[in-house]
Design brief:
The radius of gyration is 23 Å and the shape is elongated. By secondary structure, it is mostly helical. It has helices at about 10-25, 30-45, 50-65, 70-85, 95-105. It folds into two domains: about 10-65, no CATH class; about 70-105, no CATH class. It has five helices and no strands. This is General stress protein. It comes from Paenibacillus spiritus. It holds the Pfam family KGG.
Length: about 100
C-alpha cells in the first residue's frame, strides 16, 4: 500500500484506487454509461467546435506517432469489411445503394 511519509497516511493514489474498486463493486455497466453520458453532455455544453477539432487533431497526432502503416491498413480493411459486408439487415444502406437511390429522380 502506498503511504505518505507523514503520519503513515494513505496516499491520494491509493485512496483513489480503493475508492474506485469499492464503487465498481456497487455499480453495474449501466451506471457507468449514464455518468459517461452526463459527462459528455456537460462537456458539449461547455466547449465549442474548435475545442473538439483541437482534441481530435492532438489525438490523431498521438495515434500517428505510436502506430505504423500496417496498423492503418488493418483498421482500413476491417472498416471496409464492416461497411461492405456487415450492413445486411441492420437498417443501414451501403454507399453504393445510397448512390443508386440518390441518382434516381
Amino acid at each position: 500500500m502506498a503511504r505518505n511519509d507523514e503520519n503513515n497516511k494513505m496516499s491520494r493514489e491509493e485512496a483513489g484506487r480503493l475508492g474506485g474498486e469499492a464503487t465498481s463493486k456497487n455499480h453495474d455497466k449501466e451506471f457507468y454509461q449514464e455518468i459517461g453520458k452526463k459527462g459528455g453532455e456537460a462537456t458539449s455544453e461547455n466547449h465549442d467546435k474548435d475545442f473538439y477539432q483541437e482534441i481530435g487533431k492532438k489525438g490523431g497526432e498521438a495515434t500517428s506517432d505510436s502506430h505504423d502503416k500496417e496498423f492503418y491498413q488493418e483498421i482500413g480493411r476491417k472498416g471496409g469489411e464492416a461497411r461492405g459486408n456487415g450492413n445486411e439487415g441492420n437498417g443501414k444502406m451501403s454507399r453504393e445503394e445510397a448512390g443508386r437511390k440518390g441518382g434516381r429522380s
